[in-house]
Amino acid sequence: MFYEISIIQFKKVLNNLSAILDKAEAFAETKKFETTVLAQSRLAPDQLNFTRQIQIACDTAKLGVSRLTGKEAPTHQDDEKTFAELKTRINSTISYLDTVTAKDFAESGSKKITHQRWDGHLTGEDFAIQHMIPNFYFHVTTAYAILRHNGVDIGKKDYLGALPFKK
Amino acid sequence: MFYEISIIQFKKVLNNLSAILDKAEAFAETKKFETTVLAQSRLAPDQLNFTRQIQIACDTAKLGVSRLTGKEAPTHQDDEKTFAELKTRINSTISYLDTVTAKDFAESGSKKITHQRWDGHLTGEDFAIQHMIPNFYFHVTTAYAILRHNGVDIGKKDYLGALPFKK
Question: Domains in chain A and their CATH numbers?
Answer without folding.
Answer: 2-160 (1.20.120.450)
